[in-house]
Amino acid sequence: MIAEKMKSYVENSSVIRAMFEEGGKMAAVYGAENVYDFSLGNPNVAAPVEVRQAIEEIITGEDPVMVHGYMSNAGFEDVRTAVANSLNRRFDTAFHEENIIMTVGAAGGMNVIFRTILNPGDEVLTFAPYFGEYRAYVSNYDGILKAVEPDTDTFQPNLEKFEEMITGRTKAVIVNSPNNPTGVVYSEDTLIKLADILRRKQEELQTVIYLVTDEPYRELAYDGVAVPFVTKYYENTIVGYSFSKSLSLPGERIGYLVIPDQVSDSEQVIAAANVANRILGYVNAPSLFQRVIGKCIDAKVDVQFYDKNRRTLYDGLKKFGFSCIKPEGAFYLFVKSPVEDEKVFVEAAKKYHILIVPGSSFACPGYVRIAYCVSLDTIVNALPYFEKLAQEFFG
Ligand code: PLP
Description:
Layout: H1 4-11, H2 15-30, E1 36-37, H3 49-61, H4 64-67, H5 77-91, E2 100-103, H6 105-117, E3 123-127, H7 134-139, E4 144-148, H8 159-165, E5 170-175, H9 188-205, E6 210-214, E7 237-242, E8 255-258, H10 266-279, H11 287-296, H12 303-319, E9 332-336, H13 342-351, E10 354-355, E11 357-358, E12 367-371, H14 376-394
Parallel strand pairs: 1-10, 3-4, 3-5, 5-6, 6-7
Antiparallel strand pairs: 2-8, 7-8, 9-12, 11-12
The chain binds pyridoxal-5'-phosphate.
The site of pyridoxal-5'-phosphate has 13 residues, from helix 6.
């Protein structure tokens, strides 16, 4: 007999994953080249060459007892110093090794932070559309996730509604920029206003509200757009980062949390997060890849590749009559469904072997997400079928 909570997790188990499995089955029947699988955010660009070089150097040159051994739960000190120094160089911050905890990807980091700060019944706010796994990350610790309804004109956070939803139970807010699924980058103006609201509410309610940033797509931004670094705007910001997308290492499970000294009760939060990393069973982030990160902290994947995909897909879909906000970051397009029930549209797309994800998976029905971290050929070859789909719906 499985736990009650697991029953609902299993029932609601990711539509995205189910779609990915379906893609595999379709590929076996029709041939992989005839299936246009835009379902999963699995990077299609190889990790930069520096990663491979670093692995070789570590394996041949470093002490295997150290490389594969336990270390402090927060991670290797030299690696955390390298992360802190890199952030300080890039964002004019003053972090030190103690502020950095190496984590098992962004997912591990979010679980660590919610284990650390949530009491049962505490509320966490986020902005729709949002990455559906947040529901589990919060409910794992008996918190309650509440979503602020979207502003579908801009997909910037709806700050009016946000302010109305903050109560004495609000313990944290999650922001994700560049955003999955919209590709929108939250502007500096948005962040300044959001920080003002949080400060005002903390004062009024005499509480502490942590702003948790989930930023696996930080490095994936186009057209020279700047992704503001959120600790600058609000003292109680905790940053969750991952190398899954920025270095194309999703299977290696490596990321970090930044808990700045300015955060309320920072020493306690840092100490508790260290323990949470251990007792959740991660113990520490994978050791080999911590060492790789220490050597590749400023390496980058080729963003040009995603940019070309972005432009090709966006221009093609707009030409066929679809409406969609032009993404400035990440590798997703969030397209308005031509019919109210976007699941009808998702099913229609399957006839052409096109796999896309319904917006309801991101608490934003009426839209679909198209992940363009695929080969350019997949996009080019899929476009005639998107055109047929458009003709079906728009005539
Ligand atoms: N947050 C967002 C918004 C994501 O899109 C993803 C993965 O797709 C994650 C977190 C999880 O990332 P990681 O693989 O680093 O755990």
